[in-house]
Amino acid sequence: MSKMMKSLVIEKPGQPVWTDLPIPKPVQGEVLIRVEGVTTCPHWDMHILDGVPMFPGMTLKYPYFPGAPGHEAMGEVVAVGKGVEKLKQGMKVVAWQDTGQPRPGFYAQYNTFPERSLLQIPARLTSIEIASLELAMCVEVSFQQLAQLGGIKGRRVGISGLGPAGLLAVQLAKAHGASEVVGIDMVESRRRLAKKLGADRTASPNAKTWKADRNGAKTLDDAIDCTGFPASIEFLMDRTKRCVTIFGVLRENVAYGARHMWGPGVTLMGYGDHNRAAAETALKFVLAGKLDLKPLVSKTLPFTRYAEGVELLKNKTAIKILFDPWAE
Fold first, then answer.
1. What value does the mean pLDDT take over residues 36-52?
2. What are the backbone angles phi and psi of residue 262, rounded to the nearest 5°?
3. What is the pLDDT of residue 141?
4. Which residues contact 101 (CB under 8 A, 6 or more apart)?
């Protein structure tokens, strides 16, 4: 094996470079992965390439970490560090969590990663089928939140925002036994895709055609907001009986008014913690054919066309891009 690899480095906002770097070596508890495919996490990619912090208070420094912000990835273990207990050379793995640490990412031909942050997967799974598992884990956490209230089996569930997370939430709601899933988005093409993926009906967040009513024929039992926009969350609160849980990144305040307090009051619930159980549940649904990650990928590109891929995300002509580290 060569001692060098190709890696993406965002040298400064708007300037991604596909460059040569040494192949990293796994340290205690880590494995070295030959990366086979990485899917975009659209908001991360758009923010970091534009030089905009993903979260309030976040500080960005450039050149950004090599291979970052790539974190939805799968590949093959090619070497193991000391202390690795279960993973072995030749096993196929998928990253189930972003470690949250300042470290190199998966937009590279090789990357080291902690064993605890990886799941072994069947060798038959391709990158388009499984690379986005980390996002599925994130979305599954919202269903863990709703499980604290008794779960969603037999209930009508609304999903607002039919981007990558929302399209997974539609499928996960059906997998968890929702009797009816309503996909809500302004973009017609995304509503159509949500129906293909299991939504029983779809709607535009239009207050004129869907009047505010917490006890009517169209009222939702529970809802998940995947946008992070107060207008979307408040739209749901005005049309949901029990609980609205927030998955999207919230950057502004949400107005919870007296009308939400009675009849009975609607619960506005925050997010939980990323955890391995959520990842294992998502993987179980993938293997059972109840969760399909493939439709999220609109296009496969080499890393040399990274900026082009992010532009497709910006103008909403792509849901996710799958990057192939080995394509020319």
1. 95
2. -125, 160
3. 98
4. none
d(C-alpha 9, C-alpha 105), whole Å: 10
Mean pLDDT of the chain: 96
Task: Give the whole-angstrom CA distance, residue 187 versus residue 147.
Answer: 30
Structural domains of the chain, ranges and CATH numbers in brackets: 4-132+293-324 (3.90.180.10), 135-269 (3.40.50.720)
Rounded CA gap, 141 and 97, in Å? 12
- Tokens 């640490």 -> residue: 101
How far, in Å, CA of 10 to CA of 65, rounded? 8
Q: What are the pLDDT digits (tens) for 185-242?
A: 999 999 999 999 999 999 999 999 999 999 999 999 999 999 999 999 999 999 999 9
The continuous run of DSSP H or E covering 193 comes out as: helix 188-196
**How crowded is the C-beta side of 40, counted as CA atoms within 13 Å?**
34
CA dist., res. 236 & res. 63, Å (int): 40
Give me the amino acid identity at 321.
I
Burial of residue 117 (CB within 10 Å: 0-12, 13-18, 19+) is: buried
pLDDT tens for each residue of 269-295: 999 999 999 999 999 999 999 999 999
CA separation for the pair 81, 293 (Å, rounded): 31
Q: Residue 324 above 70 pLDDT? A: yes
In DSSP notation, 266-319 reads PEEE------HHHHHHHHHHHHTTS---GGGEEEEEEGGGHHHHHHHHHTTS-S
Paired strand residues for 147: none
Residue 169, pLDDT above cutoff 90: yes
Query: What is the separation, in whole angstroms, between the first and last Cα of the chain?
Result: 19
**Residue 20: beta bridge partners?**
6
